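Sample entry was shown:
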Amino acid sequence: MKVKRLLLTAAAAALLLPSSAFAGLFDLTVTSGGDSYTENFSKVEDLFDNFDVEEISSHFTSFDEDTSGADLVIDFRGLPAYLTIASNSNKYILSIPSVGVYEEFDGATRDESSDKLEDWFKKDGGDAITKIMKKLASDTGTDPIAGNPSSLMSRMSAMDYDMAVNPESSVIEINGQQNPDLNANLISVFAKYSNYKVDGVKSKEYALPLAYTIRFNGSKNTLAIRLPMSQVTVEDSKAYNVGLGLALGYQATDNWRIIPAVGYGAVGSIDLGSVGQIVSGSLTSSYMFHPGKYLLNMGNMAGYYKTLPFKSGDYDIDPDIQNTVVRNGFNFIIPFGEAKTKSLDLFVTDTRYFGSDLYIDQYNEIGFSYGFLKNTIKEKDGKTKSYLNNLRAGVTYMTADNADGFTFNFGWSF
């Protein structure tokens, strides 16, 4: 009966709130003695701090920190949760109906009960926290691990495809018609700025992916070592990402290139109260058509992306999210100049996720890039060496259900 009364009280409190009450990543409405107040936070630590009875008492003139009860309605990054501070008791009672969570925290003091609740969210929740993490990825558009274009899983799958099907390879091929013995290794420095809106929530990404590509002499085969780094800002909350990847480019025929890749990525956000890591494996096919003086590159990728348990500091989390990602697209390359060292690249891609439920499991991108390539040939120790210098810039527009946004891209390979 106690559980039923708690759920009815929480549901009634939620119905009393206007739809505009929830305006932040973490929203809190507290009711006690017939009075209530609402606050919005961009950081999870600020939300936890406001579970403290001393903070609650500052909003109510007649609230007793030791005996008064309160009902708290929480919007946790879009996931509804309900917390009751029992009257004449130290007990905190948490309910999250959408994932079947009901927990009681009973410390020697109310402050201790609040601390136990916070520890439960960070490391002691076990399977319940796994359900919450999966629910955040499937039902909300702000999860840093998966389920939206700013998430770690989305960025890893996009990088696997983009590094395999890119205009740089096309320009090298164009230029290579004059010099078939290209043997230059490449250091690539990219800069990306993305701005997305998902269900009205804005996110920005500042990325600096680095790569070193080894070109094997006497063939078009390559080995790319990738080090992606980025910062994502969701409203005022920040998440940080880093990764490591390897991709082997195998030239099966003159027109067909196969690129298997493996990768690892980690994301952490104290503000969002989330940490995670993902391992991946993918296989991309890049086939080049030659319609007249132009090039048409058809890219097809299939990859598997899976989260791993993460333990660091106060956090012990296992999101248990795994998806097969299929990404298909076309790049139409228009070369310019007598030496064919300039090109305009027009592209379109379609990305789909299969496996764990995600808030966004399909999106499309369209865009362009323009670049210049300089190929310098030098004689050294009786051998001919080719040195490449490539500069490109472009814009990508992304659209999906309840989401859209754009990315500015700039890359320099030398």
Remarks:
- The first helix runs from residue 2 to 16.
- The mean pLDDT is 88.
- The domain at 152-413 is CATH 2.40.128.130 (Lipocalin).
